[in-house]
Structures are given as C-alpha cells and as structure tokens.
Amino acid sequence: MSKIDLKEYSFYLWTSKTAPIKYLMELLRDLLTEGNLECSSEGIKIQAVDPSRVVLIHSKLKGEKFEEYHCPETIVLGLNMEDTFKIIKNMENTDTLKLFVKKENPNKIGIETYCKEENTCDTTYLNLMDLPYEKMEIPSQTFESVISLPSNRFQKICRVIFNFSEKIEIECEGNKLKFRGCNDNVRQETIIKPTNNGMKFLKNDNPDEIIQGFYELRHLVLFSKCSNLSNTIQIHIKNNFPLVLRCDIANLGEIKLCLAPQVDDGNL
C-alpha cells in the first residue's frame, strides 16, 4: 500500500477485511433503501429506521479495527444502499477496499477495490445524498432474557416458518426457547434447550415467568443473513417491548435490529 497525504481527505478508510463489509452492506441494502453513515474519529455509526417505521437499525464499526482509518472531524455521509451494494458486491475476499471523501469533492464518496493477484484497481465515485439526519439517543434497557443462538440455526428456523406464516411467536419459558408460526393448515413449533455448542441463556432473571412476543417475520428472515457475519446471534426479549437482535460484524463492530412487537391476533 502506497503512502498518501491524508490531509487531502475528510474521510479515509483502507482495509483487507472486505468480506464482512460486503455482507454488512448486503444486510443494510435488504433492510433499508437509504441511510446516513456518521463518521467520526472513533469509527462509523449507522442509525436508521426502515420505511415501514417498524425496524430500527443500529450499527457501529470501530475505526481502530481497520488497517488505516482517518476522520478527524465528524461528517455524515448519506448513501443509497442499493447503489452502494452494487458497487462492492463483486469484491473478492482477497481484495482490499478503500472508502474516501476528498476535501475538494465533498459531495461524492470514492469506493476503490484492488486485486493484488491481477494488479487491478477499480474506482467508483458515488453521489452522496442529503438525507434528513437526526441523532437518536437510544436509552439502555434491561432485558429479563438474553439468549445466544447459533446464527445458522436462527436463519433456518426463520426461513422454515416463513414458508407458511408472516408472523412468528418467540417465547422463553424456564430453560426453553420456543419459536412458533402457523397458517390455516400448518402449525410449526421449534423448541430449543441449552447445550454446550448450541443455545445458551446469557441472562434468565425470571425463569418462572413466560416471556413472549409476536413479530413480523419478514424482517427477521432478512436479518438472519447475519449468519455470514458471525457464528452466533444474541436475542434480547422482554414482554411488551421491541425485540432486539445483536450480531458481531467479524471483529470490526456490531449491528443491532430493534423490531416492534405485533398484536396477537390469536392465529398462533
């Protein structure tokens, strides 16, 4: 990697950890049409509400985890998620990635991928969007139940139930985690108990209390693609409160999905 003059850039990132970035952008593309990246000296933060206003996405990438990161002053970069993913989706895992905004051209973000094996460099400039930006303060919450579950198992459960149901019921009872879905002809229930290599209760304050919620399954199916980012997913659940799913982004940071509960219509 050749030395560059960082004084020319208001934002600059270089990394060889391209796979998690690509999978993260695919996830954001599926959940959001557009969004703001708040870039600061500490890293990159994404907070956005989906168009249906049912889902809140919160993601944080630590600047220190990239091989090179420069952002002396906080700036907000508005991105079209579909266009951004189209640019980086063809990256190979062995490629390197640069994201940058030059001071002389503050309305465009540069996306550069480099293939060392073929000595090929592709650079694309994407127009930044002027999106409404409101800093959201999310108050910390205490959850009675916090569960760690293999992410591929979570993905399989969501996809199976989504074949015949638009909603899913998630319930904690004792040491059991239950997923349910149904339609007029089919009723599916998956019951999981703790094992050394499977589901674990990280927190289970009230094992005698039934904690449950009903949620729109489409968003969980999309978020279950986080299995490409981490081997496990955390489920934070409490009665009459949004469901929170948390997943690591390799060793770069984390992403959380907050999903508002649905009304129980008696069909599950």
Q: Which structural class fits the helix and strand makeup?
A: alpha+beta
Discrete helix count: 4
Number of domains: 2
Averaged pLDDT, please?
Answer: 92
Organism: viral metagenome
Family: Belongs to the PCNA family.
Keywords: DNA-binding
GO cellular component, one term: PCNA complex
Task: Quickly describe the structure.
Helices cover 15% and strands 44% of the residues. The chain is α+β, with helices and mostly antiparallel strands.
Strand and helix layout:
Elements: E1 9-15, H1 18-31, E2 34-39, E3 43-49, E4 55-62, E5 68-70, E6 75-80, H2 81-88, E7 96-102, E8 108-115, E9 120-127, E10 145-150, H3 151-162, E11 167-173, E12 176-182, E13 187-192, E14 200-204, E15 211-216, H4 217-223, E16 232-237, E17 243-249, E18 253-259
Antiparallel strand pairs: 1-5, 1-7, 2-3, 2-6, 3-4, 4-18, 7-8, 8-9, 10-14, 10-16, 11-12, 11-15, 12-13, 16-17, 17-18
Helix pairs in contact: 1-2, 3-4
Task: Please characterize this protein's 3D structure.
With 268 residues, this protein is of the alpha+beta class. It folds into 2 domains: 6-48 and 58-127, DNA Polymerase III, subunit A, domain 2 (DNA Polymerase III, Chain A, domain 2, Roll); 145-259, Proliferating Cell Nuclear Antigen. 15% of the residues lie in helices and 44% in strands. It has 4 helices and 18 strands. It has helices at 18-31, 81-88, 151-162, 217-223, and strands at 9-15, 34-39, 43-49, 55-62, 68-70, 75-80, 96-102, 108-115, 120-127, 145-150, 167-173, 176-182, 187-192, 200-204, 211-216, 232-237, 243-249, 253-259. Strands 6-2-3-4-18-17-16-10-14 form a 9-stranded antiparallel sheet. Strands 5-1-7-8-9 form a 5-stranded antiparallel sheet, with helices on one face. Strands 13-12-11-15 form a 4-stranded antiparallel sheet. A hairpin with a 3-residue loop joins strand 2 and strand 3 (43-49). Helix 1 runs antiparallel to helix 2 (81-88) and helix 3 runs antiparallel to helix 4. The longest helix has 14 residues, at 18-31. It is elongated.
